[in-house]
Request: fold
Amino acid sequence: MPDKPLHIVYLFTTFPKASETFLQREVESIIAQGHRLTVYSLFGGGGSFGELLVRKFSMWYLLQLVWVIPWVAFSRWDVFSVILRGLLTRKAPSWLNFWENMLGAGFAGIFVSEIHRMKPDLIHAAWGGAPATAAWMLRRLGNYRFSAAAHAYDIYEHGGDWWLDEKLAEAEFIHTSTEMGRRSLIERGIDSGKIHVIRRGMMNFPTCRELRQDRSVIRLICIARLVAKKGFDYQLRIYAALKKSGIPFEARIVGEGPERARIAQLIADLNLSETVSLLGQQDQAEVLNQLRWADALLHTGIVAESGDRDGLPNVIPEAMITGVLVFTSPHAATTEAVSDGETGWVLPVEKSEQWARSIELLRNDDGKIDSIRRAARDWAEENYNGERNARKLSELFVEVTKR
Reply:
């Protein structure tokens, strides 16, 4: 516990969000470290999270910009000119990212007085988009310290967030959860001394499930949003290769997203309806149940056309903790956790027959399987300890407020 608990304003795009349980754990962990949080959700979300009130930013507040914008332009030209210069000198990478940044700037202009009354020790942006823009503008308007997280989406989608470099240059520190993210930020010119790799984590590790004795029918699971970067076209062709090879299996896909209809159609087209099920979005307890059902987790992540990609999906270390074997593509940061033949299997997504041959080994190679399961659990215990990692983040919060 810190000697003096901090009051931290935490800014999210949407909180709580079912598909972002890693951020819910982060909030729980920082509260457990003794700090007091005031949480804002800039788009949707809101309500309560445990005993914590989540303050939702209503879009109706944006009507106040009719007078806030002229006031900032007149009284704080030094701040307004930064936004104006950003608007005039380069295009946003996408309309979505444009409006994300405008939302963050609008939030700062409207809520600067409320933040001033709170006098927080620190503002932390949980994402590099709208939350980081809000924190950056609040620093400019009120000289508040802020820190920011930079996730794979912030760094890679359409080449990265519009004003990411400017925002992170003024942050006290940047939190990223992968070495891949750190390298990419350094390549963008961000001061390496400000970038800290702190992985996500679980507060309580479940027991490692026993190896199923009868694996004549292999149980496979994928837990992911149904979006392009998850590579479902490749994954379904892996299932088709298993079927063609006569390898008995059952596969479940847990998650929801905009590609559901297309994935469902491809399942039908490949004649996989009897062996592959789409289970939709599940709560965290049911996700754990589904993991414990499975023999192996499949992750077929790719780099999407937009440039978006995964960092290290939380479900991979969660599977490793649970005793579920992991098969992954080599894209993004998955190989920071999964070493081929040591803590799992790393295979090119386009080689569906190679995946099928490797998955078939699960039916009878108990010695190899147990060795990989033990090594995977060891990696997760060392790197995915939620309490330890939250303490590292808490120590950074405390350190920057002493400067």
About this structure: The domain at 7-202+385-401 is CATH 3.40.50.2000 (Rossmann fold). The longest helix spans residues 95-118. The chain has a mean pLDDT of 92. The chain has two domains: 7-202+385-401, 218-383.
